[in-house]
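User: Can you write out an input/output pair for a complex, sequences first and structure second?

Assistant: Here is one pair. Inputs:
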Amino acid sequence: MATIGSFALLIALALSVYSFVAGLIALVLRPATDDRARNGRAANHDHHSFFSYLISMLRQGNERIAETARRAGLMVFVAVLLAAAVLVIAAFNNDFRIAYIFHHSNRDLDAKYKFATLWSGQEGSLVFWSLLLSGYAFVLRLRYKTDPRLFAYASVILAGVQIFFLSLVNFAANPFGLLEGPLRADGSGLNPLLQYPEMVIHPPMLYLGYVGTTIPFAFALGALIMKYPGDKWIHITRRWTMVTWGLLTCGIFLGAHWAYSVLGWGGYWGWDPVENASLMPWLFGTAFLHSVMMQEKRGMLKVWNMWLVFGSFWLSLLGTLLTRSGMIASVHAFAQSSIGGWFTWFTAIVFAVFIFFFFKNKEHLRSEHKLESLISRESSFLFNNLLFVLLTFTVLWGTWFPKISELVQGNKVTVSGPFYNRVAIPVVLLLLILTALGPLLAWRKTSFESLKRNFMWPTIAAVIVMIFLMIAPPSWGGPFGLRPWVDISYFYSLMALGLCVLVTATISSEFYRGGRVISDKTGQGMFASMVQLTHRNTRRYGGYIVHFGVVVVIIGVAGAAFNQDKEQEMSYGDKMQIGGYTLVCRSYTDEEFPNYDVEWAVMDVYKDGKQIDTLTPERRFYRASQQTSTLPFVRSTLKEDLYLTYEGLNQDTGHPILKAHVNPLVMWLWLGVWIIIGGTALCLVPNAPSFSTVPVAKRVERPATATPVPAGD
Amino acid sequence: MDSQLANMMTKFNSIRRAFQCSLLALAVITLAGAGDPASRFHDLGHQLMCICGCNQILLECNHVGCPDSDGMRTELTAAVTRGDSDSLVQQAFVQKYGPTVLAAPTTTGFDRTAYIVPFVALFLGTGLVVLVVRAWKNRPAPAIADGLRPLRGPELEQFRDQARKETDL
């Protein structure tokens, strides 16, 4: 098995090298037909030496070389798929001769986690990365007819990236290395923290997002190298970026949900370097999805967009370097090794290649239009991009600061949640203001009066809600009774919630105004009109839905200001009071399962004297890995989560210790993510054809015509 | 045009003054609200890290049998009960456990740069955007072929309205 896997990886590398070299030759040498046309008779005199004869032959066979390069690229996917399949089959067959399987699986491991073994360790996850990359490249190479020349450039660039990752799995982190000595009876088992259903989905999603940033980069660099005429490449890139962004969003939030459901500390985001690493390309991607509209609509920000696409890819490489090299201390001890040097060199090479072509061809990226007013959609996008890039920089700065501090003052410092709360929250609030303002601004120019008119009612609504939240009695529970003078976190929450209302009101007014126009024209009901409106400009209204999803997520985050927790040792019948809940310990016991032993408590939950639920938090001990893991029980409602963790038995008394958290509004966070995903999917749906309500003859009669302004996005 | 600009500036100054007053009032009220031992324990406990290697905030460390967090919490409770100031408590923890016990860099010495740099970047970035906007605004309009006259003012607005009506919905 191991031999087949190793051989498949080697073949994949060889095919990638061929795809890169042959693709490059085909691109460097102009097509034979063009050549003959351009050089005429001169070409006939080039046959004096063997070298020039060879060049001439290669030029004549140019298209065939390009096709072989493309097909070799397609076959890379088949070879890597075979290697990945071999690794999964080895996990299911308990082939503990393979070191990777021995270290990340065991006989009693559940089938779904045996499948997840593929990405549970360094070597396997790099094979998985190569598989996804070759999968993306496979799709791209199949769709080459969209624009053969641009796709050929992108294919060569992708082959270059594939060579790097396949070199890693062939020479630095081979997943098919064999264990020396006698055959082991059982494996060491999978890390208990990874034995959770979401762990089967979270890494693939995150990797799809990470790896996906390579595709826009390949198109962007390809377009830059070939000085691509027109903006078609940006349309292609935008769709790929949107898909990648959506997958990265899913990956990030699945990770947050996993942390909340498994780690047992009651939170979902710890600003750990690994979390930050996933956030940075996401922030850059978000900036690009906004600024790309400037290029499409107005032919502006071409240089900036090029940098954003490159930045997303480069940051995903940097994130991988951070998480796998052990360069920065992280709770995610997963997959640290010596491949840091490889990644450092690769990120440097990628940077150098991009810089070279950027300076060589930057004249090609001139803006086509001028900015007419500060109060315009264009300038709001500029500030939006500034804030996203600043946020990325802040996260990068915070992640690296312990290292910088060590270099400068000789000692490390911790940069955790409190730092980011101070620095990042104000920027997020500014972004929310822009999210509210953006839809109200027209392209080119907006009059101050019209802005004031459109902004007045949403602002009044936001202020009313903020006053209500401030004066409501705290006994109603979070987020009511938000007195900003009590704590700075309350101030931030109040501002965030107020701005969420503002954004929701401006988005709603956009839907309402558009729906009303269609309703007036067609006589349809308002809801049907708004559906039609959305269908006619899916990107614009899908984008608004994404914004609404972000608002719902922020409402969920704002609830964190009211989090409460309590820890208590509990025997039979003991009570714990937290929030409005009374928890009564009915029982506690232990049990054995094939893969683990479990201790758990049965807790009855009472509210206002009535029993409303029974929770069973547990703690598992995995025999193969000799590690423990908590499995909190979360009772979720729209108002708040009751989150209960079984922390273990007190060795002196034999009674369990339980920790309860009341976390307001957390469910909003997960709901918001679904809305974001729905909005992103909607953006990818093609627009419905727009119907005309104005008779054609009437249009012709008009004395003057104007160039149509594209619908805003 | 100038009077409009002057009006806008006056409005902007009034808003700025109101904002500054609100911030000052908020700061006074916020400081006045601090001091309750339970909330101090909660706040300080969230500014310190557990040093067992779990990389968690002290009050969020959830390991039963953690060799450090229980002792650290007891020390924190004692310090708050004694009435030690926040900075004194933090200094004592730093002396005993090292600077990594603080969950965020301090606001003294080199650590200060951790907070300054992002805001400097914000101001520089904002300045840069403003410069870019100005440069773009002052850029000459693209030439129009065949001697056609570029549209301006109400005529241009009329065409824009027409274009929006015909294309936006």
